[in-house]
Design a protein that fits this description.
The complex is a heterodimer of chains A (347) and B (380). Chain A is α/β, with parallel strands linked by helices and 347 residues long. Helices cover 48% and strands 8% of the residues of chain A. Chain A has two domains: 235 residues, 7-stranded beta/alpha barrel (Alpha-Beta Barrel), CATH 3.20.110.20; 88 residues. With 380 residues, chain B is an alpha/beta fold. Chain B folds into two domains: 193 residues, Rossmann fold (3-Layer(aba) Sandwich); 155 residues, Rossmann fold (3-Layer(aba) Sandwich), CATH 3.40.50. Chain B contains 13 helices and twelve strands. The longest helix of chain B has 19 residues. The chains are: A alpha/beta (347), B alpha/beta (380). Chains A and B meet through helix 12 and helix 16 of A and helix 11 and helix 12 of B.
């Protein structure tokens, strides 16, 4: 973040957007309050936009209303309190997007949403233009340019990659050569220093980008708040829920197998009790259990290319551990909710 | 092949291993002479010939017990019998054309090594477990020496897990460059459908020996018992620990729910597996743990101790520290409680257990034979 701040100081044209969840802010407050100070310093430059999302980085969009609206409102409130920010662009967990979610965004007065620039929905159209939601035309769509984003996010340190090593100069040239109005470079924050450790040169790459972009004429930076301004190229319809994960860009990474679906069904059932219990601690614990990562850890394939990626992100020895642990926590929460409701539990 | 027991009369994994390996080697076109101290009868395998002391009436041949003599002590006639077996091996008459002498565990190492010297053919040794394991760290020196002799004389040593390989390097000073790992395998079980889906069985199959950690199984059962009134804890197998374990079950208050079945036949074992909800292998020491692989092949979700060899090749199991009774109890309870977990782990375990079988293991073994022959200049 210090590098980003320096980049912003040295390059008045440099801009970026950050997505910061409520749970992250809670953890930072506990473990590393200086992280929040740095985020504030970044935001104070006026050239760092913050994105709206669910407070808990959750699968709230898959449980009945008003869960999603409440979690987005909680997050908005947290950004307002902490940063004085009023974001108008929304991204849903793991870049989930659908016609329904666009309608939701419109109902909550968002001007734009982020989504994956996936060929399956673009049908030959380029991802490098502003679109609008077919279901909610006031909502502008900014699409992730996944090949260029993943060049940094996934491939930067792959020695076997034909373009290795990737320099800031080369990257700026590629982007300058990409036709269209803008290139959506969306990636994990951990790309810089965690997925690719410092020794790979990723941090120097990040620092050098603003300078290289300036050297290549015609390249400008924009935050998501700036990029949504302007007329859309065309409406885009996405009748199912698309994400940015894995080869299929669907929800398979979270709800693709029986373990995940069973855990999620359990969560939905307990959710009804957690709301009825009318107890803030029970509800927030339940919402924590809705965080998408829990389900991601239960991914089992064993035979596919994505297993390595999932295993990398998991803090469990196996998906079975993840499931068992999750179900234990959910069972415990269910008992708490029932106790609160005065319902005697069996056994 | 210098062996020990062979089906149908066998008490441990070595007999099964010998049978399956010989069968696949024979299928690959190799001719095998199986040397054993027992006089049979033996399950027939095409291409496999059996020889044993006393096979011809004119040979003196020591008298051998009809089954594995587990309770032997240095004072028993066992050692004399073993020596007799080894003398017979070393002086084997009319061995015929031989490329490799392959010995399993300590029983025939001295005679096998002598035979290998006499025929100028390389010795390969497979170690299934060590005396350290079987004695829980208090090896009977007499047996340890026989293991050492085999490991020293062998041109190549096969260990049934990485964990065991490391032990051979650390405790027997085996040259790491000559020790290979070849895992055990299982054949698919025919019985997959549950006998009675309402019955809930937590199963242990194996010898009742100290190294198997059946105590842990019983202690975990005592913890799980109050929450699951419909569950039986079934212990199939026999061994020296039996009386102590039965007493222990009573003391822990699980006497009414712990069933000791004694020895079970292969068919009975398959039936048990097809009705089991959870299989537990809590071994303190387990160089491989084929019982767990058999349970996985039958689609039974399996909990194994981390130190077992089978843990090295299975990610679809729960792996627990052998001393952690609470963790065993939690895992058992979780599997009993969550049907989706049971089914998913069962399916994954079955896939893992069966994706490679004895044919692959036999080919890996032949590769080791060829290495041994090249290393000693025996023409291939």
């Amino acid at each position: 973040m210090d590098r980003l701040l320096r980049g912003l100081e040295e390059h008045p044209e440099f801009r970026l957007s950050l997505s910061v969840t409520g749970t992250f802010l809670e953890q930072a407050r506990l473990a590393a309050p200086d992280v929040i100070d740095r985020l504030k310093a970044l935001h104070r430059t006026g050239r760092v936009a913050l994105l709206a999302e669910t407070y808990y980085h959750s699968l709230a969009f898959l449980v009945p209303p008003p869960e999603l609206a409440e979690e987005v409102a909680l997050h908005r409130a947290a950004l307002r309190t902490e940063f004085g920010a009023e974001p108008t662009v929304l991204r849903i967990t793991e870049l989930a997007y659908s016609d329904d979610l666009a309608r939701f965004a419109e109902s909550q007065r968002f001007r734009g949403m982020l989504a994956e620039g996936w060929e399956g929905v673009l049908k030959g159209e380029p991802p490098t233009y502003r679109y609008c939601a077919a279901s909610a035309p006031t909502v502008r769509l900014l699409l992730r340019h996944y090949p260029l984003s993943d060049d940094v996010g996934f491939r930067f340190s792959s020695i076997g990659w034909s373009e290795y090593p990737l320099t800031a100069d080369k990257y700026a040239r590629w982007i300058a050569a990409t036709p269209g109005e803008f290139v959506g470079l969306f990636m994990d924050f951990e790309t810089f220093g965690e997925h690719h450790p410092a020794r790979t040169g990723i941090l120097e790459f990040l620092s050098a980008l603003p300078g290289e972009f300036r050297r290549h004429g015609g390249l400008e930076w924009a935050t998501v708040e700036e990029a949504v301004d302007g007329p859309p190229r065309a409406p885009l319809g996405v009748p199912y829920t698309m994400s940015w994960a894995d080869q299929n860009r669907d929800l398979g990474a979270w709800l693709g197998n029986d373990l995940q679906r069973s855990a999620f069904e359990a969560a939905k059932k307990v959710g009804v009790l957690a709301r009825q219990a009318n107890d803030a601690a029970i509800l927030s614990d339940w919402r924590r259990l809705l965080t998408s990562d829990h389900f991601y850890y239960m991914y089992v394939s064993g035979h596919g290319a994505d297993q390595g990626v999932h295993q990398y992100f998991s803090s469990y020895e196996s998906p079975y551990d993840a499931y068992a642990n999750y179900m234990n926590a959910m069972t415990d929460l269910r008992r708490r909710a029932l106790d609160r409701l005065g319902v005697p539990t069996l056994k | 092949m210098v062996g020990w027991e062979f089906p149908p009369h066998h008490t441990g994994g070595l007999g099964v291993h010998s049978f399956e390996l010989c069968r696949e080697l024979a299928r690959l076109g190799h001719r095998i002479t199986f040397l054993t101290p027992f006089s049979g009868p033996f399950s027939a395998v095409p291409g496999l010939r059996f020889r044993f002391p006393g096979e011809r009436s004119e040979a003196p041949g020591a008298q051998f017990p009809p089954a594995y003599w587990a309770g032997s002590t240095p004072d028993s006639p066992f050692v004399d019998s073993i020596d007799g077996y080894n003398v017979w091996l070393g002086g084997l008459a009319d061995p015929g054309p031989v490329d490799v002498v392959h010995v399993h565990d300590w029983f025939g190492t001295l005679g096998g090594a002598e035979l290998s010297r006499r025929l100028a053919r390389p010795l390969v040794m497979t170690v299934h477990s060590t005396e350290y394991d079987r004695s829980l760290g208090h090896p009977w020196e007499h047996l340890r020496r026989r293991e050492q002799a085999g490991i020293d004389a062998a041109v190549r040593v096969i260990a049934v897990s990485r964990h065991l390989r490391q032990q051979l390097i650390d405790r027997y000073s085996a040259d790491p460059s000559k020790v290979r790992v070849i895992y055990n395998a299982v054949r698919p079980s025919e019985r997959l459908e549950q006998i009675d889906p309402t019955k809930r069985i937590v199963l242990y199959v194996g010898r009742l020996a100290a190294m198997k950690g059946v105590d842990t199984f019983l202690r975990a059962a005592a913890k799980v018992r109050p929450d699951f009134p419909d569950v039986l804890f079934v212990i199939a197998g026999e061994g020296p620990e039996y009386p102590r374990l039965v007493r222990m079950a009573a003391e822990l208050g699980v006497g009414d729910r712990a069933m000791f079945l004694g020895h079970v036949s292969d068919e009975e074992r398959e039936t048990l597996l097809s009705g089991a909800s959870v299989f537990v292998l809590p071994s303190v020491v387990e160089p491989f743990g084929i019982a767990a692989l058999e349970a996985m092949a039958a689609g039974v979700p399996t909990i194994v101790s981390k130190t077992s060899g089978v843990a090295e090749i299975s990610s679809g199991t729960f792996r627990v520290d052998f001393w952690d009774v609470d963790e065993f109890a939690s895992r058992i309870a979780e599997l009993l409680e969550y049907p989706t977990l049971r089914r998913t782990m069962g399916e994954e375990g079955r896939w893992e257990a069966l994706r490679e079988g004895w044919p692959e293991r036999a080919r890996e073994t032949v590769a080791v034979y060829l290495e041994a022959m090249r290393a000693t200049g025996v023409p291939i």
